[in-house]
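Researcher: Last one for today. Full complex below.
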Amino acid sequence: MKATRDLIAGLVFSGIGLAALIIARNYPFGSTLNMGAGYFPVIVSTLILIFGIVLVIQEIIRGNGPAFGDIAWRPLLIITGAVIGFALLIDTAGLIPAVAFLVVAGWFADPARKWRHLPVQIAIGIAVPILIFRLGLNMPINLWAF
Amino acid sequence: MIDGLLLGFQVAFSFDNLLYCLIGVTLGTFIGMLPGVGPLVTIAMLLPMTYGLPPEGSLIMLAGIYYGASYGGSSTAILVNLPGESSSVVTCLDGYQMAKKGRAGAALAIAAIGSFVAGCIGTLAIALFAPWLGRAALDFGAAEYTALIVMALVATSVLVQGAFIKGLLMALLGILIGLIGMDTNSGALRYTFGLTPLMDGVKFVVVAVGMFAFTEIIMQLRSHTAQPVEATKVDSLMPTREELKASALPILRGTGIGMFFGILPGIGPTMSSFASYMLEKRVARDPSRFGHGAIEGVAGPEAANNAAAQTSFIPTLTLGVPGSATMALMLGALMIQGITPGPNVITERPTLFWGLVASMWIGNVLLVILNLPLIRLWTALLKVPYSWLFSLILILSCFGIYSLANSYSDVLLGAFFGMLGYLFLKLDCSPAPFILGLVLGPMLEENVRRALLISHGDPATFIASPISIGFLSATILLVLWILLPAVRRRKEKIELETN
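Model: Here's the assembly. Have a good evening.
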């Protein structure tokens, strides 16, 4: 059995549908006349579960779709980490450290990165949001919280 | 209508609004030209810059950004064979071939002229039909809205690349994510997992930036090299007399197709540019020229997608039902400004509606006088290496999310949706129905609930009026049509040719 894209997609969706359905059963279902908080979630998650299973079965029968894989782990993890770092720094440390972290971390994900470009990229990266958001839009963002 | 248009031009010709329109068109073209940045990301990134503006100015600037970005996307399609969005995929086919034959200038000019003609006729169509549709929509009850939303969701799912069932699953997942937060009806918390930031629900700008901007960066960084893309040189912008003559009818036909598809929610620009290309190929005396630089293959689809972009404002504004992910962003921008789109928006906010209509036309004029002379400047942008671009896109995207509510948890959510978007990309699942489901989900639940309440729980209410029967049978026909083996093969063939 090959791990094709459609097979994985079907499994992911049926998993999400099942989990959402189990959670939705805790919400009051109500009646057709007066839908409770759980009515719509039950319908939606059931549909996801059903179509997810259909996708799995379809792929088991045909089983010739393109294979899943070829994940660009390096950019995926680094870019996600860079954004998370920005999120954690922006309130606590201020704009300058947050943007500097974002640019430096993102720089490591770039296959064509060059050392001599990094300082300029940081400088531009800090200047642009200050110009647009602080000076242009007057947003109250702390530049430097230390 | 004449009064309305006059009022509109009065609003649009105010110094401030002209300026916003100009800034929007320029910024939109600027960012839309950058490789790997489509209109959706452009709008999502530039959205925070419009928060501080008055509603009219904000919407006018956003519409300008939208047109600018679409035009920028067509230019990259012609010059470097990189479509900025799905609706300019078709432009690549013959536009890039023309560029390779040294007719890049003519292709760009025809694209601009086609878009301009389509824009003018499209603007007129909005002025004519939107008030009419607005009045018709006053008769829409909850059941009719339910049918319309279902049609929009199914149509988007059907028409995206790849399997229909995956499109439908993405739309459903979008609806599910849209359920997160407090239920407006009962106050119950749903799918919040005890996390306080999720109580207000997931903002769709967060999802859009995550799934389009972050995912795109991750994807581009895997493959890009230090070399900037090789852009074709643009020499003479003047199309020859023959080229102009050959383009005239395709432009008009494309405009007609685009206006028709644009009004239908969920179908919009992409489908209309495909349809126009197919039509031109069919009516051409020598169809074999297509794919080798036939100017009709640029003129028709470009006119069609611009006309559709215009008329897709009609359902968005008058019904509050956006037809595409981009329109969903525009709708979100309206809501941030405290405006609820709907049948009453024309009568209650005439300056907003007519101002927007007038500035659409002005935006099209600005595009032609701005883009054609400046095209060499714009193409210089293509030489900017991706290494310099992506960090700026990353920064603007992070700030775009953060400035929604000055909340760092929104940025964390954005990072999560970036990863999710990448996973779905690797699973061949299109994000467009997901975004639409997210926006339309709450509306769908509310309308289903209201319809059933009014009918005392009788589900037959959804097929009680001719309007909803019309929407639902159109939906079923669309599904049946796409499941026909012949159509499916053709769709796969187009996708193969355009990939």
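Chain B has one domain: 2-498. The CA atoms of residues 77 and 344 of chain B lie 39 Å apart.
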